[in-house]
Predict the structure.
Amino acid sequence: MGECAREWGERVGAGWGWVRDLGLGVLYPEECRVCGGRVEEWTGGVACRACWRRMDERRAGLRRCQRCGGWLAEEDARSCPGCPLQEEGGLVVARSAGPHEGALRESVLWLKRHPRMAWRVRESLRRAWEDLPGREGIDLLIPVPLHPSRQRERGFNQAEVIACWLGKMTGLPVETTSLVRRRPTERHRLGMGRRERSRSLEGAFVVRAPRLVEGQSLLLVDDVMTTGTTALAIGETLLKEGASAVRLVTLTRAPGGMPR
């Protein structure tokens, strides 16, 4: 929980926020990574106020798949075509804070290199949590693990940073020791089918302390959901080791068939 405690302490009170914003705008101007304009507030992280407003408007205009949380192109649809959660598998339901574009996309990319989340990103995460069906019964938060070699290279696990903040918001414990990635997995290439993706993940994850997940309703936490194959594989592993249910929350969701 160290990263959470440090980041929480960096949050600026109302009385001093204007001082930091003045310094950001005048002494240390930052360029918005979306539009190239100026970031006016520390709370926006890597994106300016206008780009966050566009992100909010974008989210408000999209409808979700009731299962995987993906965005729907058709007005009368309740689930997306080829929804990864349509078939019985390792996940009950999934939700994300927004589409993998604009201010959220740039925030996720920045998070892969810096273990800190701006206030606007944390508020987006809060909305994803509040939209999650069945959240009242969740017992534990489990970040999707990196392979040890990858974590040593990066220095931290961005999924753990997100889970830590969600734990701070909700009061739920974050469990980081039971689930491990025991072998590195190749990046899923465009054009790979779901079966091929699933085969590439066979045996990649293992629960080394089943007693920690047995009988527990779990929430997996990650930065991005693309096809959902990794989360489904982890969910199946956790269910085999006695978990009662597995859900998923991510900061962003890859567009797929969502409307433009």
The chain has one domain: 63-187+194-253. The chain has nine helices and eight strands. The longest strand covers residues 217-225. Residues 90 and 235 are 4 Å apart (CA to CA).
